Amino acid sequence: MPAREKIIRLTIAITTRNRAAFIGETLDSILPQLTEDVELLVLDGASTDNTPGVVGGYQRKCPALRYVRQEVNNGPDRDFSRSVELASGEYCWLMADDDLLRPGAVAAVLRAVRDNPSLVIVNAEVRNADMSRILEPRRLVLDADRIFSPAEWDDFFVQTAAYLSFIGCVVIRRTIWLERAKDPYFGSLFIHVGVIFQHSMPDGIRVLAEPLISIRYGNAQWQPQQFEIWVLKWPGLLWSFPGISERAKRAVASQHRWREFDRLLFYRAQGAYSLAEYRRWVVPFAGSWWEKVPGMFIARIPRVLANTLAVLACLALSGRTVAGRVAPELVLLDLKSSRFYIWTWLFRQRTAP
C-alpha cells in the first residue's frame, strides 16, 4: 500500500527582508520545537544583505524549513498573503522575523487548534532590543485563556484589536485567509487585521493567556513612517469595518487621532512630527481653523522641549496612558531613545566640534 501522505497541521510563516542580523536567533527559537505535523516557511522579499546565506545554512540542516526567495520586494502585506498561499498547513502562524518563540510555544498552539477554531491569538511578552530585559510581562492581561463565540464579535474587537497590530500573534485557519478579500488591505501594513475583521469568524476564537512570544521592542522597520501609520492608517483601518459597532471602535482608537494633543506631542518629542507632517496629514483633514491650531502649535515646539515635557508627563501619569499606550515603561523607552532626549542632546552639544 502507498504510504499515507503526511498532514501538516501548522505552518509557521515568516516573511523577511534584510534581517540577517536577527533571523538566525528567531530560527534557533523555532526549529527545536518543530514536529512532523509542523512546517517552517521563510519567504524572503528580495533581501540585499546576507539573509539568504543565513537562512540557507539552517535549511541545509532542517528539511522542515522551506525557504522561498523572491526577486522583487512586494511589501509586507503581499508577502504575508503569499506565504499563506504557499503554506501546506491547515493553520498558518504569521511570524515576525526578529522575535523569539518561548519554549513550548508550538506545542501550546497545536493544542489550541485541536478544536478547529477559526483563529488563535497568541499572547506575548515585550523585551528590549537585545532581549536581555522584560519591559512588559504580557501584552494581553489575561488570567486564563478565553474563547470568543461569533456572537461576541464586538467584545473580541475591544479586547484584542490594539494588540493585533502585532502580526506575530495571529494563527489563522488557512482556508479562511484564502477565501477572504485581501486586495483592499495591500499597502495598509496590517493585512492580517483586514482579513480578520472584515467579517465575523465562522467558528470560535481562542485567545491564549500565557505569553508564548518574546517581542524584540524598538526594532521595527517602519519607524520612519510611524506618524502616518499610527495616526492615520491604523485608525482608518479599524473604523472601516462595517460589522464592528462605533462603540467598540471608539473603545480601541479615536477616529481622528490627529486631534489628540498628547499624541501629537509624543510624536513631536520623537522627531516624527513636524510642520511637514502637519501640512501633509493634519491640514487636509482639519475642517475649521480652530482644528488646525493645536497641530500647528505642537509642530513648532522645539523638539527637545517637547521630549522633556513628554518624559515628565510619563513620570506623572505612571499607571495611566500616554498617546494611547501604557505609561511609563515603553513610552519612556521610546522617548529616551530619541536624539531629542535632553541628556542625549546635551551630550551631543558638548562633543560637537
Task: Tell me the layout of helices and strands.
Elements: E1 10-16, H1 23-30, E2 38-44, H2 51-61, E3 65-69, H3 76-86, E4 91-95, E5 100-101, H4 105-112, E6 119-127, E7 134-136, E8 146-148, H5 153-160, E9 170-173, H6 174-179, H7 191-197, E10 205-216, H8 226-238, H9 246-252, H10 261-270, H11 275-282, H12 289-300, H13 303-316, E11 321-322, E12 325-326, H14 329-337, H15 342-351
Parallel strand pairs: 1-2, 1-4, 2-3, 6-10
Antiparallel strand pairs: 4-9, 5-10, 6-7, 6-9, 8-10, 11-12
Helix pairs in contact: 5-9, 10-12, 10-13, 11-12, 13-14
Find the CATH superfamily of the largest domain.
Spore Coat Polysaccharide Biosynthesis Protein SpsA, Chain A
The helix fraction, in percent, is 40-55%
Given the structure, what is the number of helices?
Answer: 15
The count of DSSP E runs of length 2 or more, i.e. the number of strands, is 12
Terminal residue distance: 80 Å
Question: Shape from CA axes?
Answer: globular
Please identify the top-level CATH class of the largest domain: Alpha Beta
Characterize the largest beta sheet: strand count, sense, and whether it forms a barrel: 10 strands, mixed
User: Whole-number radius of gyration?
Assistant: 21 Å
Mean pLDDT score: 91
